[in-house]
Amino acid sequence: MSISDLSIKKPVLAGVFSLLIVILGIIGWKQLGIREFPLTEPPVITVITFYPGASPDVIASKLTRPMEESIAESSGIRTISSESREQVSVISIEFNREIDIEDALNDVRDKVSKSRKQLPSDVDPPIVQKASSPDNLVAFLEVESDTKNIKEVSHLASTTIKDRMQSIPGINNVAIVGEHKYAMRLRFEPAKLAAYQLTPADIRQALLRENIDLPAGRIEGNNSELSIRTMGRLTSVKDFEEMLIKQVDNTIIRLKDIGSAELGEENERTAIINETGNLNRIGVGVAIQIQRGANAIEVVDEFYRRLDQLRKEVPSEYRLIVGFDYTRSVRESIKEVEETLFIAFGLVVLIIFLFLRDWRSTIIPVLAIPVSILSGFFIMYIAGFTINILTLLGLVLAIGLVVDDAIVVLENIYKKIEEGMSPIQAAFKGTREIYFAVISTTITLAAVFLPIIFMGGISGQLFKEFAIVVSGSVLVSAFVALTLTPMLSAYFLKKKEKPSWFYRVTEPFFVSLNNGYAIY
Asked: Which tops the pLDDT comparison, 285 or 459?
């Protein structure tokens, strides 16, 4: 017994098959990310190391070169590139596309830890992270104020705003651009340093010695125990200026004797300036970056919802302005393709009705379209794809292909009904006659697109999703044509004793068309 015979005998089972495909398609659709184009960028890991005060030459010789030699031992590396700038070393490692980025991240971390002994003792710990593609930047928020200084603006952005945005599902990183952290800046007069025979290294050693918290033991009693803590942290300008630098005999040299301390910012060289060039509007930027494959539309929608809440909560002196929303172009592109999808569906329904000229006969193949198209979303979900222009274009193309098998099956069944058979008998006989023909034509059609999967390079990455979506939808359409279509034809079609008005008006045209085709 074929699956078509089983569907006709058990119509509920055929309906459940199609309903299951629809449910799985909707689940896949809800879980899919949205991008403008498919993911094509290879896995890239970056290693960033800061060495305050070091020149580019020192960065290259002391940091970049030892870490590069150690990282090169990792497997699956395609290229390694590095950049040594003042105070910072940046190493980018690109892996082969088949390498899992989490495994690559752990491997690079191990290699960097291995090279740690070769680095200077006072260097900051290296930061190993997944590189953010430019496509992953989805929104940019400007935080400005006319009355607050830049340190206060930066503090608001790096605490309240960043903490609120960081918890959005799908967020990879919230970067503060032009951040000005609070920092105590120590300024010295060279003449006084020379007079006391001091160097900046002496100041550094004094900071390490004086600005520290140390455990000081505990006090034990009969019924209690108290921990003792030495409060050695310097927290105010006065504390730093009273800091002991050096003692020569009975002479104590403090910081205030050779310079001064002031509460400033760690970074004084960058800031966000608005487009009008009004320097009085001080601000910093908040860059929103999403995870690889995350749904950019949902992330940005949630970003706007939380931004509205923040505007109600933060003081009125601060302005939160959306500088860029990079999903606008994605929304417009996806919207255009979605419109094309609905237009294609409408045209297919119209053409089917014009040729079949019966609403019952039209509904049956039309039902096969949403079932097959929704299956494409589930195929995209299990394959790890996203909703993008190319996958939607594949669905647009599939609309005209998935309906072919259903029309062929329907036409052969209706022909048997016109010859005098009952709808159920016609469904059995009509489907059996073209059962293998439907399967062979479907496999042939899918075979046209499947070889695209084996294309290499960026082109292969782009059109792989397109080919799988089209091929998968076409294969599912054959299953629907051999289960749902025969069942509906058996219980829904009826032989009309008297044709409709539209049928009688258009029949001469189709008769002449058939006669003309027979002549040639």
From this structure: 285
Q: Which of 351, 458, 327 is nearest to 399 (CA)?
A: 351
Rounded to an integer, what distance in angstroms lies between the CA atom of residue 177 and that of residue 323? 12
Burial group, residue 476, by CB count within 10 angstroms (0-12, 13-18, 19+): buried
**Region class of 493: left (phi > 0), else alpha (psi between -120 and 50), else beta:** beta
Q: Which amino acid makes up residue 197?
A: Q
What is the C-alpha to C-alpha distance for residues 86 and 52, in angstroms, rounded to an integer?
A: 8
* Token pair recorded at residue 117: 């002994």
pLDDT digits 0-9 by tens, 293-321 = 677 888 899 999 999 999 998 888 888 98
Contact indicator for 385, 330 with CB cutoff of 8 Å: no
What's the CA gap between 423 and 433, in Å, rounded?
A: 15
Query: In the Cβ-directed half-sphere of 466, how many Cα atoms lie within 13 Å?
Result: 19
Residue range 33-53, pLDDT digits in tens:
787 777 766 778 889 998 887
d(C-alpha 112, C-alpha 96), whole Å: 20
Report pLDDT digits (tens) over 50-89. 888 788 898 998 899 999 989 988 888 888 999 998 889 9
Q: In the block, which residue shows the tokens 């999967």?
A: 453
pLDDT at 23 (0 to 100): 94
Interval 402-415: pLDDT, tens: 888 888 888 888 88
How far apart (Å, rounded) are the C-alpha atoms in residues 274 and 466? 42
Q: What is the 3-state secondary structure (H, E, C) of 479-512?
A: HHHHHHHHHHHHHHCCCCCCCCHHHHHHHHHHHH
Quick one: DSSP state of residue 1? -
DSSP run (H or E) holding 177 = strand 171-177
Are the C-beta atoms of residues 277 and 152 closer than 8 Å to each other? no
Task: Work out the widest C-alpha separation in the chain, in whole angstroms.
Answer: 123
CB 414 within 8 A of CB 493: yes
pLDDT score recorded for residue 304: 93
SS3 520: coil
- Burial group, residue 340, by CB count within 10 angstroms (0-12, 13-18, 19+): middle
Which residues fall within 8 angstroms of residue 42, CB to CB, at 6 or more apart? Answer: 78, 94, 95, 96, 97
- Please say whether the beta carbons of 453 and 478 come within 8 A: no
pTM above threshold 0.90: no
Q: In whole angstroms, what is the distance from residue 240 CA to residue 25 CA?
A: 65
What number of other Cβ atoms are within 10 A of residue 95's Cβ?
A: 23
> What is the rounded distance in angstroms from the CA atom of residue 303 to the CA atom of residue 312?
15
